[in-house]
């Protein structure tokens, strides 16, 4: 994200495919764990009517999550759309988690350490 206002950022699109059965199972589940930001984005796109094809859903605060309750993801780089997704998911407590990760020497980006996040309510 290179713009000052994230609303001005053009998000990349991703190919997704969520079967109606998966979406129905999520609706019945007590708790849905999305493994990765692409999965979270795919599930939220499906909940909004795009089950397959490409999604350009830009998840940033404020955002009403309809599917995911828990997100397993790695530590994302500053100024990334994925960090904006994490912020939308857990609120401002992302800063505490990232401060701890930096202080403890956690690895960031694609092959870094992971975190399990419960959605802010």
Describe the structure.
By secondary structure, the chain is an alpha+beta fold. The chain is 34% helix and 17% strand. The chain is built from 4 helices and 5 strands, in the order E-H-E-H-E-E-H-H-E. The protein has helices spanning 20-28, 37-47, 81-90, 94-104, and strands spanning 14-17, 33-35, 52-55, 70-74, 114-118. The strands form 2 sheets. A 3-stranded mixed β-sheet has the order 2-4-5. Strands 1-3 form a two-stranded antiparallel ribbon. The longest helix is centred in the middle third of the chain and has 11 residues, at 37-47. It is globular and about 45 Å long. The two termini are 26 Å apart.
Number of extended strands:
5
Q: Give the count of helical stretches.
A: 4
Please tell me how large the radius of gyration is.
14 Å
Strand order of the largest sheet: 2-4-5
**Mean of residue pLDDT?**
93
Cα separation of the termini: 26 Å
Helix/strand order: EHEHEEHHE
What are the low-pLDDT stretches, counting only 5+ consecutive residues below 50?
none
The description of the largest β-sheet is:
3 strands, mixed
Structural class based on helices, strands and sheet pairing: alpha+beta
Strand content: 15-25%
- Characterize the overall form: globular
């Amino acid at each position: 994200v290179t713009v000052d206002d994230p609303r001005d950022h053009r998000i990349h699109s991703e190919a997704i495919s969520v079967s109606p059965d998966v979406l129905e199972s999520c609706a019945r589940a007590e708790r849905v764990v999305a493994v990765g930001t692409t999965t979270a984005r795919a599930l939220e796109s499906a909940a909004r009517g795009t089950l397959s094809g490409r999604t350009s859903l830009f998840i940033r605060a404020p955002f009403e999550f309809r599917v995911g309750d828990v997100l397993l993801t790695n530590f994302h780089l500053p100024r990334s759309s994925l960090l904006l997704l994490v912020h939308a998911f857990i609120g401002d407590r992302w800063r505490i988690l990232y401060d701890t990760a930096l202080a403890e020497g956690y690895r960031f980006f694609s092959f870094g350490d992971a975190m399990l996040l419960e959605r802010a309510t």
